[in-house]
Amino acid sequence: MSTTRRRVVATAAVALAGTLLLASCGDSGSGSSDGKTLKLWHYEGPDSAMGVAWNAAIKEFEKTHPGVKVKFEEKGFEQIQKTASMVLNSNDAPDIMEYNKGNATAGQLSTQGLLTDLTAEATKRGWDKKLSAGVRTTSQYSTNGVMGSGKWYGVPNYAEYTMVFYNKDLFKKYGIAEPTSFDELTAAMDTFVAKGITPLANAGAEYMAQQYLYQLALSKADRSWVDSYELYKGKTDFHDAAWTYAAETFADWVKKGYISKKSTSTKAEDAGVSFIQGKSPILFSGSWWYGRFQTENKFAWGTFLWPGSNLTLGSGGNIWVVPKGAKNKDLAYDFIDITMSKKIQNLLGNKGGVPVAADPAAITDPQSKSLIANFNTLSGKDGLAFYPDWPVAGFYDVLVSETQKLITGSEKPDAYLSALQKAYDKGVPKT
Question: Are 78 and 317 in contact (CB under 8 A)?
């Protein structure tokens, strides 16, 4: 979620202001280990599919490692993103940590020498065989920190992708059928606006707004366009047809009332709660919400892939990384292994996650089957296009601030795209 996350995880984390900053100062005994404690950090909500599965993995780990205890600390997503470099460069680094994947995050840490090379373990334990090529992309980073090749610095044990979540009860109330084309989607939104309802839940203060815009661009793009933007395999022009269409359409959607101008200060959690409470009929976001919606939605709801596009945002999930300064690396490798086991993978799948190594026959929940089937459809057609903030360090904050200006109307699409071009060009590795 991030950088991309654009995820603020749903029920998530106690935002303990300054927790990570304080960690750099050290706490008693945190800099050494007796080999009987695994220090684990992650930011998944306890009711999310990943949170449930990883809690089960902790129990399994302690069961198979008598005398060893897992010291779990729940962190906020934004906390880890903003202070990871400093914390991992201190004596207080955890043994294993969930971290955001991509060039600007895990790639950057790998070039700073802060992450352990997991290549040998990935081969020895068969993690490389369990991950499909598309999911594996975010596990490996070159010497320049570019994903897709090189050494293994992380392991995802789930996948993620974006989709349109919609409130079936509200659609039925206003006589709207499930959209099967882009024109039908916009027609549905016109109907809601006519009834005084803002159709799209949005979060301008975090990842959600930029992901709407990126999806609009993807609907006019192809794989080579994505590779140029994300992997530097060509020139990226923010004034090309895809980006121009996206910025102009997004601005037009604000004018039409599909997106509220007041959403500039809204966070992802606010947008998710708006959907859960039945206030917003449509939310475009990631599979990380799925388990929570299964638990908390009190209305009939469904999902569909963004109509009229072969590409959507998605990738392997956030990755397990082992800090270079971890005191118990072997224990960390064992924990990763458990999260990749059939038992934990099957549980993750039945709780609304997208497992990477589950037994398909073991996934019995109908909604979960649909979630995984849509992912397989995307993966099968090479439809995962990563996330907009990944290419360069600091781009997430640029996208947030610039997209807020697009929502308020204080910046026109052309100026918006020029601002993105400037920040992108400044950050692209010089070869």
Answer: no
